[in-house]
From TrEMBL:
<dbReference type="GO" id="GO:0032259">
    <property type="term" value="P:methylation"/>
</dbReference>
<protein>
    <submittedName>
        <fullName>SAM-dependent methyltransferase</fullName>
        <ecNumber>2.1.-.-</ecNumber>
    </submittedName>
</protein>
<keyword id="KW-0489">Methyltransferase</keyword>
<dbReference type="InterPro" id="IPR041698">
    <property type="entry name" value="Methyltransf_25"/>
</dbReference>
<keyword id="KW-0808">Transferase</keyword>
<feature type="domain" description="Methyltransferase">
    <location>
        <begin position="41"/>
        <end position="135"/>
    </location>
</feature>
<dbReference type="GO" id="GO:0008168">
    <property type="term" value="F:methyltransferase activity"/>
</dbReference>
<keyword id="KW-0949">S-adenosyl-L-methionine</keyword>
<dbReference type="Pfam" id="PF13649">
    <property type="entry name" value="Methyltransf_25"/>
</dbReference>
<dbReference type="InterPro" id="IPR029063">
    <property type="entry name" value="SAM-dependent_MTases_sf"/>
</dbReference>
Length: 197
């Protein structure tokens, strides 16, 4: 999967960047009033940093991670131009603690988990649990399950609940697909909100 994303960024074939911006605009409305800065936020699979930069603008202490160096370089450049302080690290979501440390209050995942294998999902959940504080929030965007060609395989509510045993699923809502192309609308895009027990 990493090589595919590496090549996609290199050849500028990144349709998820635009889609991520549209879905990212929905983040503010999905946060609970208790999810307020200052606090530490981890943006998993941050890509070119749009969500991380927006969270930094809102006063969060932000760390964004991705496995694609080119994407991280763009994220750092965008953060400098935006005049915000955000940390961008090359890290794998299945091995977080060694790279990002602990103490996170909020984790954003706009399209990372739903493309992972079952084994990686389990490792990811364990790592997110390790690096977050009790009561932390995980806000996850995912397509519904199903095979749709090049789109990620997606994730169901029951899969998320089973995998994140140390968390309570507090909401599962349809993502607003206004302005999105047909294939993305048909992928049953959802927002899951979980709170660490």
């Amino acid at each position: 999967m990493g090589l595919g994303y590496e090549l996609a960024y290199r050849f500028k074939i990144t349709p998820w960047v635009k889609a991520g911006r549209i879905f990212g605009d929905q983040i503010e409305g999905l946060l609970d009033p208790c999810d307020t800065p200052p606090g530490k936020v981890l943006d998993v699979g941050c890509g070119t940093g749009d969500h991380a930069i927006e969270m930094a603008r809102r006063g969060w202490d932000v760390t964004g991670i991705d496995t694609v160096q080119l994407a991280l370089d763009k994220a750092r450049s965008k953060a400098r131009k935006a005049g915000v302080d955000a940390r961008f690290l090359r890290a794998d979501a299945t091995d977080l603690e060694h790279t990002v440390g602990r103490g996170y209050h909020l984790v954003l995942d706009v399209g990372c988990y739903h493309g992972m294998s079952d084994a990686d999902r389990i490792a990811y959940a364990e790592n997110v649990t390790t690096v977050t504080e009790p009561g932390a929030t995980l806000l996850m965007f995912a397509f519904g399950p199903g095979h749709r060609g090049p789109l990620p395989r997606g994730a169901s509510r029951s899969n998320v609940e089973r995998t994140f045993e140390a968390w309570k699923l507090t909401s599962d809502v349809d993502a607003d697909t206004t302005g999105m192309p047909g294939p993305l609308k048909k992928a049953d895009p959802r927002w899951f909100r979980l709170v660490k027990r």
